[in-house]
Design goal:
This protein has 107 residues and is mostly helical. It is 57% helix and 8% strand. It is elongated, with a radius of gyration of 17 Å. The two termini are 29 Å apart.
Length: 107
């Protein structure tokens, strides 16, 4: 599918979001949707080298993209949002915010 690469040892995608993989993949779409990193097509070594050189000189861009990735995750992909989305797909009642918070705390 693809690989997440970094200039250091990342602990998650928001640390240094550089994705090498197909443009139609979910990680590439997330990078574009939330402007939270960079996407390189497989085999595009020149683009990868150019981006790595740019990021090496502009580490602030990495931190800003990571902050956008963290914000995107918190606003779109946390446990309570996931539970609510699954309930909607299944056609069952979505738990209240209080119930969702309780489920997240006990997980």
């Amino acid at each position: 599918m693809g690989n997440c690469l970094s200039l250091n040892q990342p602990t998650n995608f928001s640390d240094e979001p550089l994705f090498v993989g197909p443009s139609e993949s979910t990680p590439a779409q997330i990078v574009r949707r939330f402007d939270c990193g960079w996407h390189i097509e497989p085999g595009d070594a020149l683009a990868l080298i150019s981006l790595m050189e740019t990021l090496d000189c502009h580490r602030d861009l990495i931190a800003a993209a990571g902050a956008r990735a963290r914000r995107a995750f918190e606003e779109n992909y946390d446990r309570s949002i996931g539970i609510a989305n699954i309930c909607k797909v299944l056609g069952i009642e979505v738990p209240s915010d209080k119930e969702l918070r309780a489920m997240s705390e006990h997980a």
